[in-house]
Amino acid sequence: MITLAVADHPNSPQTNRPSPQHYIKEDPVRSKQVVERLANKTEKRLSLSSLKRLAKRARLRWKRVRKSLKSLRDPDAFAKAKRELEALQKQEDQGQIALYYFDEAGFAL
Q: How far apart are CA 83 and CA 90, in angstroms?
């Protein structure tokens, strides 16, 4: 006699239902869209905190994606600033100047 688990039974509603981890792996960048897609496909709502808890249980993580501004910079101005910086670094290596880096807030390393 063969015994089947409920999820293994061909008529079980659980056999064709992908897990939330499946949707997370499809679109790992946008958690809100994963919740929406899961709601559309399964007709059940899942909160962001529940989704994150499930992801954590599956050892998946969301990390903030940094947006690059590289495409917005002016290539000529960037090249000019890079040359000026290299010249200043060369002067510092020769001992002619003391070069310090700081941001607009005045924080220096």
A: 11
